[in-house]
Amino acid sequence: MSENAPIRDARELGVPKMIILGLQHMFAMFGATVLVPIITGLSVSTTLLCAGLGTLLFHFITKRKVPAFLGSSFAFLGGYAAIAPAEGAGGMTQAQLLPYACFGVACAGLVYFILAACIKAVGVNKVMRYFPPVVTGPIIIAIGLGLAGSAINNCQTDWLVAIVALAVVIIFNIWGKGMMKIIPIILGVVASYIVAIIRADVDFAPIKDAAWIGLPVHTSSTIFAIDWSNKSLIISAVIAIVPIALATMMEHIGDISAISATTGENYIKDPGLHRTLMGDGLATTLASIFGGPANTTYGENTGVLVLTKVYDPKVIRLAACFAAFLSFCPKFAAVIETIPAATIGGISFVLYGMISAAGVRNVVDSRVDFTNNRNLIVAAVILVTSLGLTAGATFSIGSVTITLSALAVASIAGIVLNAILPGKDFDFEEDAPIDTGASLSSSANAKDVKKTKKAEAKEAAAEA
């Protein structure tokens, strides 16, 4: 096997190496996943439990075929802030308001089932017409570039620590041998953490004060703590948060396309986009019911797939088991919280770039025709809107104010433009997938492939 050949069965590496790879995927998602509860006021331990169990549930629904990890979604931050601001509202504290926000997110997760049902009813071909590479490619690019500012901000807290993390990842990924080549992220975290300790940038007090064992779920933080007679707040939460699902579903399709492009497997066809949507939506709903943040397929872990070329879903499930198990250890959660922001920034520096690069690959491998002005317009609107509309879009429905993220607006704009502008030239070709894995090929290319397959069939028949 070539040194750069992908590994689809991690058992080739042996159990010890599989465990290390699983830990690497867990660390890759930690920075962003833990940041969501820190921002919203949700529990870090609950978040880890929901990320782990949500990922396992996703793998069960998708027939254990898709190497995807589900972590905390940033798309719903605006919804949490609107319903449960840090300072509280209406005479209620943030802790009292969070269950209502979680109820809104739980309802948003159920919206995934509507799109999944449509795909199941009419077929993925008709639905995916609205999500060709000219739409999903720029969305994937925007996901990575939109996170770039976060990586830089984290790096700025201590550039030396960040550069050590970045340098170690690059050095071992390019020049590393054997196992060292496929665990560059763990090595980067460890090396930069040691440098941070030497520079006295790590506060060990939270670790000392935390307990070794504790329950990750607290009844007061679940939706069962809601006062169901407060119908006004419940309705406001649903109206404010459910529309965000429109954007997160588009992000999901972009993520699955990115994973497909990375691994060369057609996950939109098998196990099917309807299954991946159901897995993501159900994981989000269950996490919210028990006081966790919304789940989503994680771009950081797609970046790890790109770096390591280890595509075995069993490695992801190991990472999920580790996250769920460690959610019962508050001391471990405290250790993770002490990882310097600069370390997270240095690791994210390359991972976020890898996400955007996967989007570029999706566009290139799908042979999107950018000599066609309608394709240029669709891509341009998505990129400029997602990167330029930093404050998102805010509007009111009655007395409720709704804020959509820039990526949400860009996703919706791209889908609508692609649907209404004439000259669509992409078909979903299930029988002749190309290198993207998403199997979104131009109609001309699809016809060429069909002709080639027919010619090969005739030749085979003649030989027979």
Topology of helices and strands:
Blueprint: H1 15-40, H2 44-61, E1 70-72, H3 77-83, H4 94-122, H5 124-128, H6 133-155, H7 159-175, H8 179-182, H9 184-198, H10 205-209, H11 231-241, H12 244-263, H13 268-289, E2 295-297, H14 299-308, H15 313-326, H16 330-337, H17 341-365, H18 373-388, E3 393-397, E4 400-404, H19 406-420, E5 426-428, E6 440-442, H20 443-463
Antiparallel strand pairs: 1-2, 3-4, 5-6
Helix pairs in contact: 1-2, 1-9, 1-15, 2-13, 2-15, 3-11, 4-11, 4-12, 4-13, 6-12, 6-17, 6-18, 6-19, 7-9, 7-17, 9-17, 12-13, 12-14, 12-17, 12-19, 14-17, 18-19
Describe the structure in your own words.
Residues 429-453 have low confidence and may be disordered. The chain has helices spanning 15-40, 44-61, 77-83, 94-122, 124-128, 133-155, 159-175, 179-182, 184-198, 205-209, 231-241, 244-263, 268-289, 299-308, 313-326, 330-337, 341-365, 373-388, 406-420, 443-463, and strands at 70-72, 295-297, 393-397, 400-404, 426-428, 440-442. The strands form three sheets. A two-stranded antiparallel sheet has the order 1-2. The protein is 67% helix and 5% strand. The protein has 464 residues and is mainly alpha-helical.
The total of beta strands comes to: 6
Number of DSSP helices?
20
Overall form: globular
Structural class of the helices, strands and pairings? mainly alpha
Order of helices and strands: HHEHHHHHHHHHHHEHHHHHEEHEEH
The chain-level mean pLDDT equals 80
In short:
This protein has 464 residues and is mostly helical.
Task: Supply the key terms.
464 residues, mainly alpha, two-stranded antiparallel ribbon, two-stranded antiparallel sheet, 6 strands, 67% helix, globular
